[in-house]
Queue: 2 jobs
Job 1
Amino acid sequence: MAVNPLKSKPQLVKDFWPRFKRGAVVIIIVLQLLILVALAALLTTSGFFDDNPLGFAATLVAQSVLGIVASVVIYHLVARPMKHLLSALVHVAGEPTNIAPPNPNETRFEKNGFKPVLQTIYQLASDVKDPIEEGAQSAQSAIGPQAQITQPSVQSVLSSALDQAICGFVVLNQQHQIIYASKAAPLKVDTNGVQSLDLIFNDNDTIETWWAECEQTAVHAEKTWPRIPNKLPNEEDRRFFDVIATYNKGTESEMVITLIDRTHLYEVGEAELDFIAFAAHELRGPITVIRGYIDVLSDELSTVLQEDQKELFRRLAVSANRLSGYINNILNTSRYDRRHLRMHLAETTVNAVYDTIRDDMSLRASSQNRMLSVSIPEGLPTIAADTASLGEVFGNLIDNAIKYSNEGGAIEVNAASKGDFVEWIVSDHGIGMPASVVSNLFQKFYRSHRSRETVAGTGIGLYISKAIVESHGGSISVRSEDGRGSTFIVSLPTYKTVADKLKAGNNGNETLISSEGSWIKNHNMYRG
Amino acid sequence: MAIKTILIVEDDRFIGEMYVRSLKKAGYEVDWMVDGNDGLIAARNKPYDLVLLDVMLPERRGTEVLEALRGTEDLIPNSKVIVLTNFEQDDESRMAMESRADAYLIKAEITPSKLLSVIEQLN
């Protein structure tokens, strides 16, 4: 019979058996009738009917009874394995049926050797996930007959395809529960058996907080979080993902999250960071010795050295100190760029911070013939600062003032209380800058055309200074006039205004910064 | 209690000699060990007023020495500890050391005369 593709009713395995049975019964009856007719004709022509009509009738009856019994017995013997095979197939195909599937462990199957046949069928069915079976399962929940045919296969193809993808996919419903996650998605299960994404976001910048924002403001939105790790540094199998979330208000799959595994890309950065930590150790070793021995020698030789020789020692000291400062700048810039720069903020004063670099700065200014005058008033409000980092900022700004002013020029350092902020101000009367330079000043590696030719520098001092100041929740600004000099102002929040946030945030700067809502908020992670 | 005896645990010969020289000149009694094991033994055998401890040490890291000295119980209750390192530790280990030491200094930032003033402040 030709298969009609337009026929809406699907052909089922179980339909075959009744049809086969009907055909077999019809054939048995027809054959018996033919045998009877042939026998009657034979006996009639041989004259048996005329001689003994009673015997003739008895022969025909006996033949028909025996023939039918023999046929039925043969039919049963031959067709029974076929019947079991078919009901096993109906079972593995998942078609609805009332007949119990044949059990391969029954003694009769063991005796007649049919057991391995059934076992093979069941084995095959469990090895290969039968598309018909999947279809039958989801067909129960499907709505229309059309869906019964198309949707199941698309679903299974999709999920197996997504499982093979390197990217992870996670779908969440409106109740923020995970309703689908592909194999590559990093998941964790809590003690209540609830699945969630196993990722370490920065501070409060998580999918959940963004989702809450979206629920208030958006219908359709998308956001990307780059470089999100699933584990802390030094843990095994640490992976990095770029996370892309797509929000569709009110739909069944309200949040779709795509996770792109970028470990190969980002772990290079991690290795570089390790390298920089070791390189810093190597560079700082010789610097320790140079600075230390200059210190020891100039002290021990102070009675015998001539005044000009002492000046040479001061220059050695100043140069070694500057070298040390540059190495700190490079270290901090590399940490900052990899989001590993972290401040340890504690209550202090700008005066106390400046004290840590005061001698160095005086020496630096005097050895280069600059008039450095520092007037930081007593009794300024305290600030929350990482002393070493803020000292670097102050050092960088004074270093710049020295570099970009003239021999014998005056440099003033002041401080003042201004509302909830303390301002630390350094002014020079040097070459100054035009407005076009000021706007680019805090970019990494930026050096003005003019200074590139005349003044040495790396172009990272102001870049990292801005980063450090903003990590304190403060800001840095500049006023400059071409040919008249520049004034840099570091504005830092008073300790009083940030104390509560600091206490809540374990003295790190993350809570402080995220509350400021500034661009630096992703830049204060652990050091790796 | 005034600081008088000092143990230096430092593997770099240049840096170790530098500290020994300037500290002795300033009138302190100084012992110097070059690896972590010897440093730990010395610190446990003699009650120093101050231990200057490097981090990157052979045999036993400074972190382990400090853990052994002040981890579960304080074996040197009458001593002060200054950690001196040039190594960029990760935050967790650095904070662990800071919590057990009296000061944590970057060697490259500390000249012998600054070290003397830090010791003065600890007094």
Job 2
Amino acid sequence: MTAAISIKGLEKTYGNGFTALKGIDLEVQQGDFFALLGPNGAGKSTTIGILSSLVTKSAGRVSVFGHDIDTDLMAAKRCIGVVPQEFNFSQFEKAMDILINQAGYYGIPAGEAAQRAEKYLKRLSLWDKRDVASRMLSGGMKRRLMIARALIHEPRLLILDEPTAGVDIEIRRSMWQFLQEINAQGVTIILTTHYLEEAEQLCKNIAIIDQGRIIYNTSMRRLLKELHVETFLLDCRETLQEAPVLDAYPCRLIDEHTLEVQIDKAQGMNGLFAELAGQGIEVLSLRNKSNRLEELFLNLVDENAEKGAA
Amino acid sequence: MSHWRSGWVAFVTILSKEVRRFSRIWPQTLLPPGITMALYFVIFGNLIGSRIGEMDGYPYIDYIVPGLIMMSVITNSYSNVVSSFFSTKFQRSIEELMVAPVSPHVILLGYTFGGVARGLAVGLIVTLMSLFFTRLQVQHIGLTITVVFFTSLVFALGGFINATFARNFDDISIVPTFVLTPLTYLGGVFYSINMLPEFWQKVSLINPILHMVNAFRYGILGVSDIHIGVALVLMLVFVAVLYCFSYWLLKRGIGMRQ
């Protein structure tokens, strides 16, 4: 099956001499829900910009569902819907008009465009705002409007550049559900995000990009398996003066009722509770200190930075 | 869907968006030229014009009406495209077009015909306004329409090029203020170049607006300072050159794509 996205040797050097991409190879299969992660300035938005024709590449080949962007750009464009990081619609136009115009740019006649606009405005809970100028919408509504706009021509590939930035938790969850629904309907999705929890929840495969290079590319399941150590915060009933000394578990005192303990997946947790009970410490509750993916992400980026420095 | 059909829908979308835009803000776009030109008609046409007498065998107000119509067409065709396209760039909504499978020809035609539509709408308003002050008897209707259309197209394309290079709002007012306005005032709107010394007559001939205004005046009154054929060829050459340059800018994404 043809890959949804095939990128080979992609390079980009901007006019000011800054090299944002240093030869990226990447494939995203049809139907995938793919996360592209990386710190600020890593090259995520440049990659997406090239895919969506907003940035001109310096070298390399890119094809979208088999359509090379150098030789068959219009066909490639028809396959893609883009939700950019920053709001980029006319502030003076109404939500409905923005969608109908966008459909028109894809050659969809006004009548059909109006029907599709209604469908997506309703699905994204924006129907009652259809006659409101876009500048009057809240941040979350603007994000949803950009998703509706990206879907108006019913693309096979949806690219979202940090779609839930600045969106409250409730709306973020509803957007996740919506994206999972359209992915289940066969739309390939590529997502960049700073919320690593988002990538962990939604994505099947992941690539980590740093300093213009892909430093990791694997399935989410395999990636999470590689995380051996998790950090937990334990709430204890007793007032503690210092961290207990545990044989198999690195442990430190956060405050007089909270311990931070690192647990290797191979160890399990029974031994920990047994050791704590042996020292007369009762655990009332425990929680993950941080997102596991976040830890791995930071480790990989740090390793890459060290390699670069070396 | 065929390539042509899809392109046509995109063109109509851009054009209707542009027409809706200038119609929505009519107090800024359609009303001011009507008021300004009415003042010109009253002051220069009636009050001062009655003391000037005839120009090329016509009452002064009749002589300046074609020039004033052209002045409003030129200004509005240019300013519609320059402000609309720059605003599209400024708000980044140009990206809506850049990600879509829209040919640069369609984008260019959509915006320039939007400018032509406003230029012609304002031209019509000013023409109707002039009927309160004089009786227009158009001598060559086909030529009049041809000249006003191509003049409008030339300046709409000029506005597009200006918007492409503009980086801030100051950049979109420099050309209208320092180039278009002087060329229009010196382009035979208010006088016949036959009144000038021979040297300045020759200098005036390098002003393209002089040719456009005179060709339009010939269409309405049947008098002109210049050869109509030259004016028509000049306009066609301007359209061809400006269109090709605008297309090249769009194709390369200059001022738009990183």
